[in-house]
Automatic annotation (TrEMBL):
Name of protein: Winged helix DNA-binding domain-containing protein
Keywords: DNA-binding
Molecular functions per Gene Ontology: DNA binding
PANTHER family attached to this UniProt entry: LMO0824 PROTEIN, WINGED HELIX DNA-BINDING DOMAIN-CONTAINING PROTEIN
Source organism of this protein record: Kribbella turkmenica
């Protein structure tokens, strides 16, 4: 097998993830496509991930792509996580990942409805859920777009309560509203539209998929074909990587992962003792790059692209990830993480380097911190999932 070492993998990050100054993307769609998809669990991540890859990017430009041109779409995808995906690629994500998630979540919701006493058994709960879904979808079609609260006013059954963790200290009785909307979204029937507040808001209006995108999510693909195309996309952006990396990233089973790698005729390579994979013809070294640094936001797709991270993360996991595996804001140099950043109440970008990188790199980092301070223009972004170093830098 051809050996692909750590330095080559780091070079690929800079070029393929559009982080080096000479290889940045032309627009938000190009930035998203270079990463397959942008994490969107935290709404700020989308805008910051684009700004890290598109020179001169502004929030308004990304919003136009999302809400006016609709060349990007926010949807549920890999690992039951919300992503922003190029609209043309959305059917791939839907068939490769989201359809399976929708099936599993429907069964779970029916179980919870039965346990809450909303219906006497699973069959009746399933029928109740279908009826509420159809009524909700009709209400949304009549309105054109609506908030969860508006839909609950139209369909009172959305205010039914579940009973979660009964008898536990963390017991709760949430409304079924968000679960029903989640289900309709996972099945591709409704989509998340504009936020209710600023670009930092996680509350969105909902729209029927057919109204938002003529034809909805487009042609239906088979699951196998979609997984093959998603695996090809991941290998193009993140390869080489191991089967375990791809399985974790996509949220697939081992069997689904193996089948997808076989379908794309992935080529095995030696990752310093581990078996990795690249696309056919992608074994050759990448073109070298000039030195570069980048500030990436919490949950950026670059650090979240692999399960095994030592080759770019080093010994910094404890300071840069939270206890459940979510990455905080990171500072990168030439394909490896060298530190983290955060914002105190005053809004400027502060950073801390976790290793000695030399004067020239420090100068590049200082210039990038100043650029981000100017870009944010006093807006303070607090990640939804906070890492220890980000918390420390945001104090004071």
């Amino acid at each position: 097998m051809v050996r692909i070492g750590v330095e080559e993998r780091r070079t690929r990050i800079g070029r393929r993830h559009r982080l080096g100054p000479a290889v940045q993307a032309a627009d938000p769609v190009g930035a998203a496509a270079s990463m397959v998809a942008l994490h969107a669990t935290d709404p700020a991540t989308v805008h910051l991930s684009v700004a890290a890859r598109v020179p001169g990017s502004e929030v308004a430009g990304t919003e136009r792509a999302l809400y006016d041109n609709r060349t990007l779409i926010r949807m549920l995808g890999m690992r039951r996580t919300v992503f922003v995906v190029p609209t043309t690629f959305a059917p791939v994500v839907q068939a490769a990942c989201t359809d399976d998630i929708a099936d599993k979540q429907r069964k779970l919701l029916v179980k919870h409805l039965t346990e809450a006493g909303i219906a006497p058994d699973a069959d009746a709960s399933g029928k109740w859920l279908r009826a509420v879904e159809e009524s909700t979808a009709t209400a949304l079609t009549l309105r054109g777009s609506a908030t969860a609260q508006e839909l609950a006013a139209d369909e009172p059954r959305l205010r039914s309560r579940l009973s979660m963790a009964e008898g536990k200290a963390y017991a709760a009785q949430p409304y079924v509203t968000s679960r029903v909307l989640f289900q309709l979204s996972a099945e591709g029937r409704i989509v998340r539209g504009r936020p209710l507040g600023t670009w930092l808001s996680s509350q969105h209006q909902w729209s029927p998929a057919e109204d938002w995108l003529p034809g909805g999510l487009g042609d239906k693909l088979t699951a196998d074909e979609a997984r093959m195309r998603l695996a090809r996309g991941w290998l193009s952006s993140f390869g080489p990587g191991t089967a375990a990396d791809l399985q974790w990233w996509a949220g697939w089973t081992a069997g689904q992962t193996k089948k997808a790698l076989t379908a794309v005729e992935a080529v095995a390579v030696d990752l310093d003792g581990q078996v990795g994979y690249v696309l056919p013809g992608d074994e050759a070294p990448e073109v070298p790059m000039e030195p570069w640094v980048s500030f990436l936001p919490a949950l950026d797709p670059t650090p979240m692209g692999w399960k095994e991270r030592d080759w770019y993360l080093g010994e910094h996991k404890a300071k840069l990830f939270d206890s459940t595996g979510n990455v905080g804001p990171t500072v990168w140099a030439d394909g490896r993480i060298i530190g983290g950043w955060g914002q105190p109440e005053s809004g400027e970008v502060r950073f801390e380097l976790l290793e000695d990188v030399g004067r020239e790199t420090v100068r590049l980092v200082e210039a990038e911190a100043a650029r981000w301070t100017a870009w944010l223009a006093g807006v303070r972004v607090t990640p939804r999932f906070r890492a220890p170093l980000e918390k420390q830098l945001s104090q004071g």
